[in-house]
């Protein structure tokens, strides 16, 4: 599952972003279509399963955002890399 920004006519409430739209495959995910805010809100709300959370953290690692957000994200990204669930940025 990956997340794309909500349409411009959508209501941009926290609840709406928490239900981000699954629209792309892992291999096709890119910076322009990935909704970081929606995925992070879903993660922090406990709405992501393990697979989606790992995908989020891999994307955060790939873009470097894992190291720019609050410390939890960098520590979790490092733990996922060390456990073999994610890989360092290629």
Protein described:
With 90 residues, the protein is mainly α. It has one domain (3-82). The chain contains 4 helices and 2 strands; from the N terminus they run βαβααα. It has a two-stranded antiparallel sheet. Helix 3 packs across helix 4. The two termini are 21 Å apart.
List the helices and strands and how they pair.
Blueprint: E1 3-4, H1 14-18, E2 21-22, H2 36-44, H3 50-63, H4 71-82
Antiparallel strand pairs: 1-2
The count of strands amounts to: 2
Helix content: 40-55%
Strand percentage, roughly? under 5%
Shape: globular
Radius of gyration from CA coordinates: 13 Å
SSE string: EHEHHH
Largest sheet: 2 strands, antiparallel
Q: What is the total number of structural domains?
A: 1
How far apart lie the N and C ends?
A: 21 Å
- Main sheet: strand order: 1-2
Helical run tally: 4
Q: Show unreliable segments.
A: 1-29
Structural class comes to: mainly alpha
Summed up:
This protein has 90 residues and is mainly alpha-helical. 44% of the residues lie in helices and 4% in strands. Helix 3 (50-63) packs across helix 4 (71-82).
Characteristics of this structure?
90 residues; mainly alpha; two-stranded antiparallel ribbon; 4 helices; 44% helix; globular
